[in-house]
């Protein structure tokens, strides 16, 4: 069986974890947490990066930093993971869903302004498959209406828009290091802050609402409860696992891009039957995933089953949030759902991970060809 995903493992992860254990420093903000934070800051240009226990928690921190509360509205696509909405719904806000562009599956930037009301507090663009949203337009709308831009860059590390790293373009950005991502710590994430002035407040929120980080730096003689917060700080052992991959980020990304390019090149002959991904001009993607779109949902189901019979695990993706029970309860759709549902039902993701061999890559391609040859 060719799995859909295999978590990356470079070989140094266990060595670094062992170092944490032997140093008797396995809680958060140890050597490897700091190394990961510094790596993200250097590679993205963000003013401050803080490793978190998940991208979900990074987004919850962003909601707290943006002072999202009851009665507020937050604009986002419906085609996204539940955490995008959960972080703001937990604060009492309403998720306002906007239709996606069919070419990238990203939020349609041309429909955002119509969704803005006097209650709108933030726009949350989701960079699907590591391909950037149209950030110039989104940031312009946000600036004119006085809104936060909180990037859900869960899939966006090592990708960019017009030379700017995803996650570091808006006011805040959020990365994921879940086991399904390009780089993994099992469960984990990071929050990126454009304004370094938010760093102290972010550290307090991340450390259960205390100024514990300042205490350990010798800036205060004791730490106390300063604000509402939670435990968003990951173990240094998780950070150690992640750092082994960040050290090889360029090699891992190049490997994934080669797989992505092979899929694209070899499946292009089927463009009259399937739709291939689009990467707009100015966007550099990170090969987070390779998907195809079939004629409709019924054809997708048949292709998925056929590949399964051939030992290939291909998977669909999100059920649009606005159609889910919680989406109906906590959100609303702005405008018409022209593409979100229709396009989501056609999309099928093919295996792509560090370690997938050329032979496996071509076998998957040939099995897709075989399906369509009939």
How are the SSEs ordered, and which strands pair?
Elements: H1 13-22, H2 31-44, E1 48-52, H3 55-65, E2 73-77, H4 82-89, E3 94-98, H5 112-115, E4 120-123, H6 135-145, E5 148-152, E6 160-161, E7 164-165, E8 172-176, E9 189-193, H7 199-206, H8 212-216, H9 236-246, H10 249-267, E10 283-284, E11 290-293, H11 297-309, H12 325-330, E12 331-333, H13 340-344, E13 347-350, H14 358-373
Parallel strand pairs: 2-3, 2-4, 3-12, 4-5, 5-8
Antiparallel strand pairs: 1-9, 6-7, 6-10, 8-9, 11-13
Helix pairs in contact: 1-9, 2-9, 3-4, 3-7, 10-14
Structure description:
There is one protein chain. The chain is of the alpha/beta class and 374 residues long. The chain has two domains: 13-246, Type I PLP-dependent aspartate aminotransferase-like (Major domain) (Aspartate Aminotransferase, domain 2); 249-373, Aspartate Aminotransferase, domain 1, CATH 3.90.1150. Helices cover 38% and strands 14% of the residues. It has 14 helices and 13 strands. It has an eight-stranded mixed beta sheet, sandwiched between helices. Strands 7-6-10 form a three-stranded antiparallel beta sheet, with no helix packed on it. Helix 4 links the parallel strand 2 (73-77) and strand 3 (94-98). Helix 1 packs antiparallel against helix 9 and helix 10 runs parallel beside helix 14. The protein is globular.
């Amino acid at each position: 069986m060719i799995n859909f995903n295999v978590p990356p493992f470079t070989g140094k992860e266990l060595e670094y974890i062992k170092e944490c254990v032997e140093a008797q420093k396995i809680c958060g903000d140890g050597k490897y947490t700091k190394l990961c934070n510094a790596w993200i800051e250097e590679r993205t240009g963000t003013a401050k990066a803080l490793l978190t226990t998940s991208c979900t928690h990074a987004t919850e921190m962003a909601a707290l930093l943006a002072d999202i509360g009851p009665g507020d509205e937050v604009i986002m696509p419906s085609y996204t993971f539940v955490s995008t909405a959960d972080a703001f719904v937990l604060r009492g806000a309403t998720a306002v869903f906007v239709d996606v562009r069919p070419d990238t599956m990203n939020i349609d930037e041309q429909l955002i302004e119509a969704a803005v009301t006097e209650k709108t507090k933030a726009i949350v663009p989701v960079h699907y498959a590591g391909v950037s949203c149209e950030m110039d337009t989104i940031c312009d709308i946000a600036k004119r209406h006085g809104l936060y831009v909180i990037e859900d860059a869960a899939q966006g590390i090592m990708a960019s828009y017009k030379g700017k790293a995803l996650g570091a373009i808006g006011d805040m950005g959020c990365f994921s290091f879940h086991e399904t991502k390009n780089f993994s710590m099992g469960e984990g994430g990071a929050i990126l802050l454009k304004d370094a002035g938010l760093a102290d407040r972010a550290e307090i929120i991340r450390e259960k609402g205390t100024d514990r980080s300042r205490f350990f730096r010798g800036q205060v003689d004791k730490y106390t409860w300063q604000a509402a917060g939670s435990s968003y700080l990951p173990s240094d052992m998780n950070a150690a696992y992640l750092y082994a991959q960040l050290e090889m980020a360029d090699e891992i990304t190049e490997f994934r891009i080669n797989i992505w390019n092979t899929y694209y090149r070899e499946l292009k002959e089927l463009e009259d039957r399937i739709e291939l991904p689009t990467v707009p001009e100015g966007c550099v993607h990170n090969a987070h995933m390779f998907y195809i779109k079939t004629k409709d949902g019924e054809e997708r189901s048949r292709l998925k089953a056929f590949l399964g019979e051939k030992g290939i695990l291909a998977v669909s993706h999100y059920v649009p949030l606005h159609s889910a029970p919680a989406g109906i309860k906590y959100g609303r759709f702005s405008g018409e759902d022209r593409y979100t549902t229709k396009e989501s039902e056609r999309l099928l993701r093919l295996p792509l991970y560090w370690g997938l061999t050329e032979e496996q890559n071509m076998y998957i391609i040939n099995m897709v060809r075989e399906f369509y040859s009939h």
